[in-house]
Specification:
Blueprint (H helix, E strand, L loop, with lengths): L5 H25 L1 H20 L7 E7 L5 E2 L1 H9 L6 H10 L3 E2 L3 H10 L2 E6 L7 H11 L9 E2 L9 H10 L2 E7 L6
Parallel strand pairs: 1-4, 1-6, 4-5
Antiparallel strand pairs: 2-3
Helix pairs in contact: 1-2, 1-3, 2-5
């Protein structure tokens, strides 16, 4: 009988995970299918927005997660792969400060559609407050609609990653959340 050493099994599993990450990043960056799915997701969100009826006296809001829902950070993931680096807050902040994220296909147009049709879009992210200006710069350069201190809701100063608190802030501003999208296309 031949038994694998535990370190060999762990190493093989780690390599498989790394390979899958490479495939995921490549698919996101190169696949026409990915692009088509992104447009399809925004078309479905537009339909949901149109069909939503806000509670009396409230305005319609769309709340979206920012990273991998509206903007593409796959270049950061590619850098991690190429350099055999894990996620760290420091490297993520450097990526954010570089202002190099790209818009997902259909995202910018969707943000404008919401605002032009009587709604307001809110961008939620667990990015740090220290990266606020860089995030604003990046979003505005990409052409996203209505990027303001009221609509860009980053991780709280105390470091809490609880997004429900930020969803509640949207409602306290007099909005009924018609569409809530916190899922990502790249997982």
């Amino acid at each position: 009988m031949h038994f694998r050493q535990p370190s060999t099994v762990a190493g093989t599993a780690q390599q498989r995970l790394a390979d899958q990450t490479v495939f995921a990043v490549n698919w996101m960056q190169q696949s026409g299918e990915y692009s088509a799915l992104s447009y399809q997701a925004f078309n479905a969100a537009e339909t949901a927005f149109n069909q939503a009826r806000p509670k009396p006296g409230l305005k319609k809001a769309v709340v979206v997660d920012l990273d991998e829902t509206m903007i593409d950070n796959s270049a950061y993931a590619g850098w991690q792969i190429k350099n055999h680096q894990p996620f760290t807050n420091a490297s993520w902040s450097r990526w954010t400060q570089a202002r190099k994220a790209k818009a997902l296909p259909g995202a910018v147009e969707f943000s404008h559609y919401v605002n032009e049709h009587g709604g307001r879009i809110f961008y939620v992210s667990n990015r740090d407050q220290k990266d606020y200006s860089a995030t604003v710069d990046n979003l505005k350069a990409l052409g996203f609609a209505d990027v303001t201190p009221q609509t860009l809701l980053l991780k709280s100063a105390d470091g809490s990653t609880n997004k429900v608190e930020r969803f509640n802030r949207v409602e306290k501003q007099g909005y009924d959340i018609a569409v809530l999208s916190v899922i990502t296309l790249m997982t």
